[in-house]
Amino acid sequence: MSDDKRDDVLLKVENLSMFFGKGDMVKKAVNDVSFEVRKGEVFGLVGESGCGKTTTGRTIIKLYDATSGNVWFDGKRIVAGTKSYYDEIKAQKARRKELVKNGGTQEQIAACDEKIAQMRAEIRKAKYDHNHCDDDYRKDEKKRIEEKYQELLKDAAPEEEAKLRKQMRRELRVAAHSKLVTQIQMIYQDPVASLDPRMTVREIISEGLIIQGIRDKKYLQDQVYEMLDTVGLVHEHADRYPHEFSGGQRQRIGIARSVVMKPKLIIADEPISALDVSIRAQVINLLNELRETMGMTILFIAHDLSVVKYFSDRIGVMYFGNLVEMTDSDELFRHPLHPYTRSLLSAIPLPDPDTEKNRVRIRYNPLLDHEKTDEEPQLREVCPGHFVRCTEKEFLAYRKQVSE
End-to-end alpha-carbon separation of the chain, Å? Predict the structure, then answer.
């Protein structure tokens, strides 16, 4: 990736793993997943139910504590798992013991000790970043606000100065209660379960602002009304309860609740799967409008590939907790390489009876579609921007396939 594109990265997921259970009962919901989302783009994450898409999104937003790996947001590490470091310490201790037993050199033993010390330092740093990233963010925000208003107050007239100081106090109060992760907001799959039935729409939308310390009722009301206008609802809806709305309207309320925080990134977790087909296009068009008008970046999680193709700039395909293919949307549909991706694409129904009658489904069977080998597959760049999880032999075959 060029330096310009690296500077444009808003979210970087690095070897992220999320395991549940212990011992022999460990379930690898997300296993060593890596991808980047650039500012202003829509990155689609697709795969069958249970493949780990939602778990990935929930781990990014810190609803789950990652088992291992890192998540970098806007240049700062917000998620840091430690299992990989502990595993390396365990391996180095076993190696050191073997060296001592078999008469290894002092240099070899010292190398093991150095690696163990390095991993322990990484663990301390990971725990600090995971637990204190919000504290550091608050300090930086306070400093930025103070510097901004120092410049504005220098040449301000007396009546303007009072107004600026009031704005500064409000922004400092918000900064004191803010968290870096609030720059990431989530739109949930179920618009019924994600809204508190005992709260009015006004309370639902304004809750995040109130948590941040905003007490100005006029400001809160203006923000609620602005969000209702933005998502296509009317001001009278502010004092109603969720049960008084249809599924599509509830999802619009959920979108308003997320957007009112002015986030840099929205994780849309299958936001249309629980809606009627006629309403889905409206919600997708709304997200498109918000992306254009507010410049938001979206991580779009879905299993409907036809929608993802329309809405996403780049697509990552997940299977059984692993990211198996990642490339531009058009490239994925033109040249799918991984057998699972081809299987998914073959399942997309088309509005043509003749085509549907003759459509051949491709079935993915990992035992048959991959040669048996001890080599662990890795995500490799087959051609510029097109990554596939494969072995070295499969990689060479994909390269040949692309060049033909």
Answer: 24
Enumerate residues 6+ apart whose C-beta is below 8 A from 302. Answer: 44, 45, 46, 53, 270, 272, 273, 308
Q: How far apart are CA 168 and CA 144, in angstroms?
A: 11
Q: CA distances (Å), 43 to each of 99, 136, 239, 317, 361, in order?
A: 47, 28, 35, 11, 26
Return d(Cα 135, Cα 142) in angstroms, integer.
11
CA dist., res. 16 & res. 19, Å (int): 10
State mean pLDDT over 352-365. 85
| pLDDT one-digit tens code per residue, 130-167 | 999 999 999 999 999 999 999 888 888 888 888 898 88
Q: What are phi and psi of 38, to 5 degrees?
A: -85, 155
| Sequential DSSP letters for 322-371 | EEEEEEEHHHHHHS--SHHHHHHHHT---S-HHHHHH--PPPP-HHHHS-
User: Which residues, 6+ apart, have CB-to-CB distance to 358 below 8 Å?
Assistant: none
**What's the count of helices (H) and strands (E) in the chain, helices before strands?**
15, 12
| Lowest pLDDT segment from 88-97, 154-163, 290-299 | 154-163
Residue ranges of domains in the chain, CATH in brackets = 1-74+304-378 (3.40.50.300), 191-293 (3.40.50.300)
Cβ–Cβ < 8 Å for 346, 360: yes
Query: Which pLDDT belongs to residue 267?
Result: 96
Q: Could you read off the pLDDT of 203-234 as tens digits, one per residue?
A: 999 999 999 888 889 999 999 999 999 999 99
Q: pLDDT averaged over the chain? A: 91
Tens of pLDDT, residue by residue over 73-83, are: 999 999 999 99
User: Percentage of residues in the chain with pLDDT exceeding 90?
Assistant: 67
Say how far apart CA 66 and CA 81 lie, in whole Å. Answer: 5
Mean pLDDT, residues 370-384: 91
Give the DSSP H or E segment for 59.
helix 53-60
Contact 323, 34 (CB under 8 A): yes
The answer to whether 332 and 325 are in contact (CB under 8 A) is yes
SS3 of 243, please?
Answer: helix
CA 336 – CA 388 distance, rounded (Å): 10
- What token pair was written down for 19? 């395991």
Would you state the pLDDT for residue 6? 52
Measured CA angle at 108 (ends 102, 113), to 5 deg: 110
